[in-house]
Amino acid sequence: MHRIAQELGVSKQPVLTAMRQIEAIGLVEIVPQSGCRVAQFSEREVRHFFEAFAASEAELAGLAAEHRTPAQLDVLRMTWSEIEGLGTNTPDALSVYLNLNRAFHRCVHEMAASRPAALASAGMWDLCDFLVGTLGGSRAAGMAAERNAEHLLILEAIEAGALQLARDRMRDHICTNVAITGV
Questions:
Q1: pTM of the prediction?
Q2: Domain 43-181 adopts which CATH fold?
Q3: What confidence category does residue 166 fall into, taking pLDDT thresholds of 50, 70 and 90?
Protein backbone atom coordinates (compact mmCIF):
# COMPACT_ATOMS: atom_id res chain seq x y z
CA MET A 1 0.00 0.00 0.00
CA HIS A 2 2.95 2.26 0.66
CA ARG A 3 4.07 1.91 -2.96
CA ILE A 4 0.59 2.76 -4.26
CA ALA A 5 0.45 5.82 -2.02
CA GLN A 6 3.82 6.98 -3.36
CA GLU A 7 2.78 6.41 -6.98
CA LEU A 8 -0.41 8.42 -6.44
CA GLY A 9 1.32 11.11 -4.39
CA VAL A 10 -0.98 10.66 -1.39
CA SER A 11 -0.61 9.48 2.18
CA LYS A 12 -1.24 5.84 3.09
CA GLN A 13 -4.59 6.64 4.74
CA PRO A 14 -6.64 7.23 1.55
CA VAL A 15 -5.13 4.10 0.01
CA LEU A 16 -6.00 2.06 3.10
CA THR A 17 -9.53 3.48 3.08
CA ALA A 18 -9.94 2.55 -0.60
CA MET A 19 -8.55 -0.94 0.04
CA ARG A 20 -11.02 -1.43 2.91
CA GLN A 21 -13.87 -0.49 0.57
CA ILE A 22 -12.58 -2.94 -2.03
CA GLU A 23 -12.23 -5.57 0.69
CA ALA A 24 -15.85 -4.93 1.75
CA ILE A 25 -17.08 -6.03 -1.68
CA GLY A 26 -14.81 -9.07 -1.60
CA LEU A 27 -12.18 -8.28 -4.21
CA VAL A 28 -9.13 -8.12 -1.94
CA GLU A 29 -8.12 -9.39 1.46
CA ILE A 30 -6.17 -7.07 3.75
CA VAL A 31 -3.37 -8.90 5.53
CA PRO A 32 -2.41 -7.10 8.77
CA GLN A 33 1.18 -5.85 8.85
CA SER A 34 1.73 -7.11 5.33
CA GLY A 35 -0.56 -5.40 2.81
CA CYS A 36 -3.30 -6.94 0.75
CA ARG A 37 -3.82 -9.68 -1.79
CA VAL A 38 -6.35 -10.34 -4.50
CA ALA A 39 -9.23 -12.48 -3.27
CA GLN A 40 -9.22 -16.11 -4.34
CA PHE A 41 -12.38 -18.13 -4.95
CA SER A 42 -12.89 -21.84 -5.53
CA GLU A 43 -14.57 -23.04 -8.73
CA ARG A 44 -17.61 -24.02 -6.67
CA GLU A 45 -17.85 -20.51 -5.18
CA VAL A 46 -17.62 -18.92 -8.62
CA ARG A 47 -20.38 -21.18 -9.99
CA HIS A 48 -22.61 -20.49 -6.99
CA PHE A 49 -22.04 -16.76 -7.30
CA PHE A 50 -23.09 -16.74 -10.96
CA GLU A 51 -26.16 -18.87 -10.19
CA ALA A 52 -27.28 -16.37 -7.51
CA PHE A 53 -26.42 -13.42 -9.73
CA ALA A 54 -28.33 -14.97 -12.65
CA ALA A 55 -31.43 -15.42 -10.48
CA SER A 56 -31.31 -11.78 -9.42
CA GLU A 57 -30.75 -10.42 -12.93
CA ALA A 58 -33.42 -12.75 -14.33
CA GLU A 59 -36.03 -11.38 -11.96
CA LEU A 60 -35.11 -7.83 -12.95
CA ALA A 61 -35.44 -8.74 -16.63
CA GLY A 62 -38.94 -10.09 -15.99
CA LEU A 63 -39.88 -6.89 -14.16
CA ALA A 64 -38.39 -4.86 -17.01
CA ALA A 65 -40.58 -6.72 -19.52
CA GLU A 66 -43.57 -5.82 -17.38
CA HIS A 67 -42.77 -2.15 -16.70
CA ARG A 68 -40.76 -0.93 -19.73
CA THR A 69 -41.54 2.31 -21.48
CA PRO A 70 -40.90 3.17 -25.13
CA ALA A 71 -38.24 5.72 -24.10
CA GLN A 72 -36.44 3.13 -21.96
CA LEU A 73 -36.53 0.63 -24.82
CA ASP A 74 -34.92 3.27 -27.06
CA VAL A 75 -32.07 3.70 -24.55
CA LEU A 76 -31.62 -0.06 -24.23
CA ARG A 77 -31.49 -0.49 -28.01
CA MET A 78 -28.99 2.39 -28.33
CA THR A 79 -26.77 0.79 -25.67
CA TRP A 80 -27.02 -2.54 -27.49
CA SER A 81 -25.96 -0.76 -30.71
CA GLU A 82 -22.90 0.73 -29.01
CA ILE A 83 -21.78 -2.73 -27.95
CA GLU A 84 -22.51 -4.04 -31.45
CA GLY A 85 -20.10 -1.48 -32.90
CA LEU A 86 -17.34 -2.31 -30.43
CA GLY A 87 -14.10 -3.60 -31.88
CA THR A 88 -12.26 -6.38 -30.05
CA ASN A 89 -8.74 -5.73 -31.31
CA THR A 90 -7.94 -2.78 -29.07
CA PRO A 91 -5.91 -2.99 -25.85
CA ASP A 92 -8.81 -1.70 -23.78
CA ALA A 93 -11.54 -3.78 -25.50
CA LEU A 94 -12.41 -5.74 -22.34
CA SER A 95 -12.68 -2.61 -20.23
CA VAL A 96 -14.87 -0.85 -22.81
CA TYR A 97 -17.05 -3.93 -23.19
CA LEU A 98 -17.48 -4.32 -19.41
CA ASN A 99 -18.54 -0.66 -19.11
CA LEU A 100 -21.05 -0.92 -21.96
CA ASN A 101 -22.30 -4.27 -20.67
CA ARG A 102 -22.92 -2.70 -17.28
CA ALA A 103 -24.74 0.20 -18.97
CA PHE A 104 -26.99 -2.30 -20.79
CA HIS A 105 -27.87 -4.04 -17.53
CA ARG A 106 -28.42 -0.71 -15.74
CA CYS A 107 -31.03 0.09 -18.40
CA VAL A 108 -32.75 -3.20 -17.60
CA HIS A 109 -32.61 -2.34 -13.89
CA GLU A 110 -34.21 1.05 -14.53
CA MET A 111 -37.00 -0.55 -16.55
CA ALA A 112 -37.70 -2.97 -13.72
CA ALA A 113 -38.96 -0.06 -11.60
CA SER A 114 -37.84 -1.78 -8.39
CA ARG A 115 -35.02 0.16 -6.78
CA PRO A 116 -34.43 -2.32 -3.92
CA ALA A 117 -34.11 -5.26 -6.34
CA ALA A 118 -31.89 -3.24 -8.67
CA LEU A 119 -29.67 -2.10 -5.78
CA ALA A 120 -29.25 -5.68 -4.57
CA SER A 121 -28.26 -6.87 -8.03
CA ALA A 122 -26.06 -3.85 -8.71
CA GLY A 123 -24.01 -4.76 -5.66
CA MET A 124 -23.01 -8.00 -7.42
CA TRP A 125 -21.67 -6.29 -10.54
CA ASP A 126 -18.23 -5.47 -9.14
CA LEU A 127 -17.61 -9.11 -8.29
CA CYS A 128 -18.97 -10.22 -11.67
CA ASP A 129 -16.64 -7.87 -13.55
CA PHE A 130 -13.72 -8.86 -11.33
CA LEU A 131 -14.26 -12.58 -12.00
CA VAL A 132 -14.83 -12.13 -15.73
CA GLY A 133 -11.85 -9.78 -16.03
CA THR A 134 -9.40 -11.84 -13.99
CA LEU A 135 -10.48 -15.38 -14.89
CA GLY A 136 -11.89 -14.74 -18.37
CA GLY A 137 -9.43 -12.11 -19.58
CA SER A 138 -8.90 -12.09 -23.33
CA ARG A 139 -11.48 -14.87 -23.80
CA ALA A 140 -14.13 -12.46 -22.44
CA ALA A 141 -13.03 -9.62 -24.73
CA GLY A 142 -13.18 -11.90 -27.74
CA MET A 143 -16.76 -12.90 -26.95
CA ALA A 144 -18.28 -9.40 -27.07
CA ALA A 145 -20.21 -10.12 -30.28
CA GLU A 146 -21.59 -13.41 -28.95
CA ARG A 147 -22.52 -11.79 -25.64
CA ASN A 148 -24.23 -8.95 -27.44
CA ALA A 149 -26.26 -11.42 -29.47
CA GLU A 150 -27.55 -12.63 -26.09
CA HIS A 151 -28.30 -9.00 -25.19
CA LEU A 152 -30.41 -8.73 -28.34
CA LEU A 153 -32.45 -11.78 -27.32
CA ILE A 154 -33.01 -10.21 -23.89
CA LEU A 155 -33.94 -6.87 -25.46
CA GLU A 156 -36.44 -8.53 -27.81
CA ALA A 157 -38.08 -10.44 -24.96
CA ILE A 158 -38.36 -7.28 -22.85
CA GLU A 159 -39.68 -5.33 -25.84
CA ALA A 160 -42.33 -8.01 -26.46
CA GLY A 161 -43.38 -7.91 -22.80
CA ALA A 162 -42.55 -11.62 -22.48
CA LEU A 163 -41.79 -11.82 -18.76
CA GLN A 164 -40.74 -15.47 -18.50
CA LEU A 165 -38.78 -15.40 -21.75
CA ALA A 166 -36.91 -12.29 -20.56
CA ARG A 167 -36.10 -14.08 -17.28
CA ASP A 168 -34.91 -17.22 -19.07
CA ARG A 169 -32.75 -15.34 -21.56
CA MET A 170 -31.18 -13.21 -18.82
CA ARG A 171 -30.48 -16.27 -16.66
CA ASP A 172 -28.80 -18.01 -19.61
CA HIS A 173 -26.82 -14.85 -20.40
CA ILE A 174 -25.44 -14.49 -16.88
CA CYS A 175 -24.72 -18.21 -16.52
CA THR A 176 -22.55 -18.04 -19.67
CA ASN A 177 -20.02 -16.28 -17.42
CA VAL A 178 -19.24 -19.63 -15.81
CA ALA A 179 -17.86 -20.88 -19.14
CA ILE A 180 -16.05 -17.59 -19.80
CA THR A 181 -14.27 -17.78 -16.46
CA GLY A 182 -13.22 -21.37 -17.18
CA VAL A 183 -14.65 -22.90 -14.02
A1: 0.82
A2: Four Helix Bundle (Hemerythrin (Met), subunit A) (1.20.120)
A3: very high
